């Protein structure tokens, strides 16, 4: 994994937190979004860099606006 302060890692950790708060397993969330579970896993671990289109799909899968996916404190 990239260093823990990378924006990818922070975005992934925030996505995982939101997914868990929604009560969704990784597999259920991936299915809901039409994505592969391993791809979602990579995003959550900060090793995959999702496109804007995928970010929109993730937000829709969680039932929220895209801006809510970016509502986290960025650590430098």
From TrEMBL:
This is Helix-turn-helix domain protein. It holds the Pfam family HTH_3. CDD domains: HTH_XRE (cd00093). Residues 15-69 form the HTH cro/C1-type domain. The keyword Coiled coil does not apply. Keywords: DNA-binding, Transcription, Transcription regulation. Signal peptide: none annotated. GO terms for cellular component: cytosol. One of its GO terms (molecular function) is DNA-binding transcription factor activity. The lineage of its organism: Bacteria, Pseudomonadati, Pseudomonadota, Gammaproteobacteria, Enterobacterales.
């Amino acid at each position: 994994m990239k260093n823990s302060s990378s924006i990818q890692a922070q975005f992934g950790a925030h996505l995982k937190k939101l997914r868990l708060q929604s009560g969704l397993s990784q597999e259920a969330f991936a299915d809901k979004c039409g994505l592969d579970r391993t791809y979602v896993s990579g995003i959550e671990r900060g090793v995959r860099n999702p496109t804007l289109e995928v970010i929109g799909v993730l937000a829709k899968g969680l039932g929220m606006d895209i801006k809510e996916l970016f509502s986290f404190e960025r650590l430098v």
